[in-house]
Design brief:
Number of strands: 0
Mean pLDDT: 89
Strand content: under 5%
Shape: globular
């Protein structure tokens, strides 16, 4: 097992180096040139401002991926974390900007995270109940719910929560905004908690057995319905907390979106890339959030969006390919 983990880590490292090398080469052919691309790359990974933004951006990606590690180990292949992040963000905004409670930040911030997690959990119940009782494919049902939540959020931002002539909502107060240390601490605590569940609890053992040998699990009296519902609730709750961190850490308000921001979808990729290990998912999420910051910085420096997307894709694909090759 240890040898397999070493090969996997080696594959990720080789893929990262290869992807960055190709990205630099591609960037040198762009209008900003080699020096411009390299300067931007170094700025993103060595300066305080982009590193801080990378860390706050980590929240929704890390929370989505950490929760999904449990779901995927149990063969519950949901992609609904995107919609759960959105409903978590919307719930947080309502609680802090529209409820009128005006609670102390020490009470309001953790309570908003809990409420965001609960709202996402209620959303996550739909695909798992359809899977358990109707044998519906959770990939399809959870994906469709992502679009439903996108349209709901757009309706709120342009309708009931709209302020003034423009389609924009209220912003949460400065007293409720959190910094990178809070985002990192919450993500780290969740990663440790879920690692503990997987390695030290009966539920974790059930998840492992059911994920690897579902027929054996049923033979020994492990209820597959309980397992699937449990991992669905856990992953949904965590994604909702990611939505809360998104609102508290950097978003602050909502506007209508033509497409979803994609943090939950990145969580799906990170969960797979990390081998469904919640502890590994945390640094992997930081890497993906840094790619987002790198992309925005490259656009600001004059690089066209096509180049930016190509560079990000090359880095990610290189990591995935080398991880797959070395794990065989």
């Amino acid at each position: 097992m240890l040898e397999g983990k070493v090969r996997s880590l080696l594959g990720v490292s080789i893929g990262l180096i290869t992807g960055l090398s190709v990205a630099v080469l591609l960037g040198s052919l762009s209008p900003v040139g080699f020096s411009g691309f390299l300067d931007t790359l170094m700025w993103v990974y060595t300066n305080e401002a982009p590193l801080v933004f990378t860390t706050v951006l980590l929240g929704p990606i890390a929370c989505s991926s950490i929760g999904l590690t449990l779901a995927y180990r149990a063969r519950f292949i949901t992609v609904g974390s995107e919609g759960q992040v959105l409903i978590g963000a919307a719930t947080t905004l309502w609680f802090l900007a529209y409820s009128g409670l005006n609670l102390n930040p020490l009470v309001a911030i953790p309570l908003s995270m809990i409420l965001a997690g609960v709202s996402a959990t209620l959303l996550g119940l739909i695909p798992v109940l359809l899977r358990v009782y109707l044998n519906a494919n959770e990939i399809l049902t959870s994906l469709m719910l992502n679009y439903v939540m996108l349209y709901v959020v757009n309706h709120l931002a342009s309708g009931p929560w709209r302020i003034g002539p423009f389609a924009i909502t209220r912003s949460i107060s400065d007293e409720y905004k959190v910094g990178p240390l809070t985002v990192l601490l919450v993500s780290l605590l969740l990663a440790i908690a879920y690692w503990f569940i997987l390695t030290r609890t009966r539920l974790g053992l059930t998840i492992e057995v059911y994920g690897k040998a579902p027929l054996v699990a049923e033979t020994y009296g492990l209820n597959p319905r309980v397992t699937l519902v449990s991992v669905a609730l856990i992953s949904s709750f965590t994604a909702g907390i990611g939505g809360a961190l998104m609102m508290l850490g950097f978003q602050y308000y909502l506007t209508p979106m033509s497409f979803s921001p994609g943090y939950g979808y990145m969580g799906v990729l990170v969960a797979w890339l990390s081998g469904n290990n919640p502890l590994v998912a945390l640094p992997a999420s930081w890497f993906f959030s840094s790619l987002l910051v790198l992309g925005r910085s490259l656009q600001a420096s004059g690089l066209l969006i096509g180049y930016v997307l190509a560079i990000q894709s090359i880095i990610v694909l290189s990591v995935l390919v080398f991880k797959k090759v070395t794990s065989r």
